[in-house]
Amino acid sequence: MKHITIEIPDNKYSFLMELLTNLSFVKVKSADILIPEEHKNVVRERVAATKENPSRLLEWDTAKMTIKT
Questions:
Q1: Do 50 and 57 touch, CB atoms closer than 8 A?
Q2: Of 5, 7, 21, 51, which is most buried by a Cβ count within 10 Å?
Q3: Would you say the C-alpha torsion 58, 62, 65, 69 has a positive or negative sign?
């Protein structure tokens, strides 16, 4: 099996991925999935909020207990 690496413009990525996933002999790895910018923004906002108010952070063991109850 051969592997290739290509560089394409961002605005052509979706088109190329749709084309490749429709070819039965092409295997697309999950790492190749594009995360939408709006999802990234949500995570960035949450990280910024915790930096502004670090008292909202919990230790992992405490958070697990909260989730279980």
A1: yes
A2: 21
A3: negative
Q: Are 20 and 28 in contact (CB under 8 A)?
A: yes
Residue 34: partners with Cβ closer than 8 Å, 6 or more residues away: 13, 14, 17
Residue whose pair of structure tokens reads 């949450």 in the numeric block: 46
What does pTM read for this prediction? Answer: 0.40
Convert the pLDDT of each residue in 6-35 to its tens digit. Answer: 899 989 988 888 888 888 887 777 665 678
Of 31, 28, 7, 6, whose CA–CA distance to 18 is shortest? 28
The answer for residues whose C-beta is within 8 angstroms of residue 55's C-beta and 6 or more apart is none
